[in-house]
Design a protein that fits this description.
The chain is of the alpha/beta class. The protein is 50% helix and 12% strand. The protein is built from 16 helices and nine strands. The chain has a seven-stranded parallel β-sheet. Helix 2 runs antiparallel to helix 4 and helix 8 packs across helix 10. It is globular.
Length: 344
């Protein structure tokens, strides 16, 4: 069945008449059924670690919309928690972690090989999904890329400019490299286990790649992803990998070739026409409708969706947003987007 799945065909380089479609954060707070299930779980982390409920919220947008792919419901910060960082969520503000500012802070972390007991419920969620997803729906696993995860581990929270991580890499480069190395090792092990549990595709989210410039981008965004992909391909040569260096701008050019990624996901800071000329020539691209259209809807959503589909129609393309859907989105606008892509 795998070779007939549209996402896998696009990732293999096939140009399809109608691009397959899924949506980042498609299981989330914009859906009433998600909010009900999260209430049942009690809190966000409890939902992530409850395999049955995490599978349920992963399946909800598939039932409602019939996306071509489903992405595992989890969070990029589960890996640092499994490595020994303290993690909690503040309502209305987001995640908080214990920070790494010194060698002593780093030394309390566990080795990458010790993550799997904590993350075993995530692998069970993957196994449930492989049993319960429709036969033509691709299952995507994921992890955060090391730079992005490191920014949270160093600052203890999300920051506007990732300043604490930049400061640590500039003032204590040896310590920063240890953090990155541990995350590279852990990410390889984590994604490999997701694949063994049944993920058919995996994606690396580097949400803060855009704050890295010049040689720093190569060293901390490109090279870690290249190493992770090479290790995964050695173990799982048939598993496609999507890379998302959000905010990369001109550095999207050549990123797939340099890292070995089968597909590069694009944010909405670049146009689809530009991507068709400069990025899609190297293979599949994913994206890149602005998520604000899921709030505003209307004719502008229809026109921009058509423009993206048309611009990327001459090569392999997976339709998606340029970033995750926001909690204030209207579920009806999601359906309008899907109908527009599929011409229904």
């Amino acid at each position: 069945m795998a070779q007939t799945k549209t996402i896998l065909r696009a990732l293999a380089g096939e140009t399809l008449e109608t691009p397959p479609i899924w949506m980042m954060r498609q299981a989330g707070r914009y859906l009433p059924e998600y909010r009900a299930t999260r209430g049942q779980a009690g809190d966000f982390l409890s939902l992530c670690y409850n395999s049955e409920l995490a599978a349920e919220v992963t399946l909800q947008p598939i039932r409602r919309y019939g996306f071509d792919a489903s992405i595992l419901f989890a969070d990029i910060l589960l890996l640092p928690q499994a490595l020994g960082a303290d993690l909690w969520f503040v309502t209305g503000e987001g995640p908080r972690l214990s920070t790494i500012q010194s060698q002593a802070d780093f030394d309390v972390l566990k080795p990458a090989s010790a993550i799997h007991d904590k993350l075993s419920p995530i692998y069970e969620t993957v196994r449930i999904l492989r049993r319960e997803l429709p036969a033509d729906t691709t299952l995507i696993g994921f992890a955060g890329a090391p730079w992005t995860v490191a920014t949270y581990m160093i600052a203890g929270r999300g920051t506007p400019d990732q300043g604490p991580a930049h400061a640590l890499k500039d003032t204590k480069p040896a310590l920063f490299d240890q953090v990155m190395e541990r995350l590279i090792e852990g990410t390889i092990d984590y994604l490999s286990m997701q694949i063994e549990a049944g993920a058919e595709v995996v994606k690396l989210f580097d949400s803060w790649a855009g704050s890295l410039k010049g040689a720093d981008f190569d060293r901390y965004a490109l090279e870690p992803v290249k190493r992770i992909i090479a290790a995964l391909k050695a173990k799982h040569p048939d598993t496609p990998i999507i890379a998302f260096p959000r905010g990369a701008g001109e550095r999207y050019i050549g990123f797939a070739e340099a890292t070995g990624a089968d597909c590069v996901a694009l944010d909405d800071g670049v146009t689809a026409a530009w991507a068709a000329e400069h990025v899609q020539k190297d293979g599949c691209v994913q994206g890149n409708l602005a998520s604000s259209h899921m709030v505003t809807g209307g004719q502008s959503l229809v026109e921009e969706t058509r423009r993206i589909v048309d611009a990327l129609s001459k090569g392999p393309h997976i339709f998606n947003l340029g970033h995750g859907i926001t909690p204030d989105a209207d579920p009806e606008n999601v359906q309008l987007m899907i109908d527009t892509v599929r011409g229904t």
